[in-house]
Design a protein that fits this description.
The protein has four helices and nine strands, in the order E-H-E-H-E-E-E-E-E-H-E-E-H. With 157 residues, the protein is of the alpha+beta class. The protein has one domain: Small Protein B, Chain: A (Beta Barrel). Strand 4 and strand 5 form a beta hairpin. The radius of gyration is 19 Å and the shape is globular.
Length: 157
């Protein structure tokens, strides 16, 4: 009996688009997730939401809180709670470093995206510092200026 072939490469499943608007991204980490079988099937189908989720370190373990994974349609009694805390799989030294950074005033652990790497569910976790309203306005102004410049360059050709 041959095992099911695993697709190689990276396939993005979900992205937290507001994160880059709401926060300054200082550093990123790749981590795995401890999931139940029906959650994996639901995530592969793209039924996951990273909005309003964050990570927290408790008792030397990292957890993702507020991530919504819709129940799998064919998953009867084996479906887990959609909003349950899920353990993040990181090395001990990475967890210690993230805990120290998260304890620093103004820093948070925010998930940026969820993806499949060689058939395994992975998360890109960011150490982020919240933006003030004037920072957001400045980012919008820079983006608009860049877009306007590209438009002029295109029309000049």
């Amino acid at each position: 009996m041959n095992p099911v072939p695993v697709k190689k490469g990276v396939r993005q499943i979900a992205e937290n688009r507001k994160a880059r608007h709401e926060y300054f991204i200082e550093d990123t980490y790749e981590c795995g997730l401890a999931l139940v079988g029906t959650e994996v099937k639901s995530i592969r189908a793209g039924k996951v939401n990273l909005k309003d989720s964050y990570a927290q370190v408790k008792n030397g373990e990292a957890f993702i809180i507020g991530m919504h994974v819709s129940p799998y349609e064919q998953g009867n009694i084996f479906n887990a709670d959609p909003f349950r805390q899920r353990k993040l799989l990181l090395h001990k030294q990475e967890i210690r470093k993230l805990n120290a950074l998260a304890q620093t005033e103004g820093y948070s652990l925010i998930p940026l995206r969820l993806y499949l790497r060689d058939g395994r569910v992975k998360m890109e976790l960011a150490v982020a510092k919240g933006k003030k309203l004037y920072d957001k306005r400045q980012s919008i102004a820079e983006r608009d200026a860049k877009r306007d410049m590209e438009r002029r360059m295109k029309n000049a050709d």
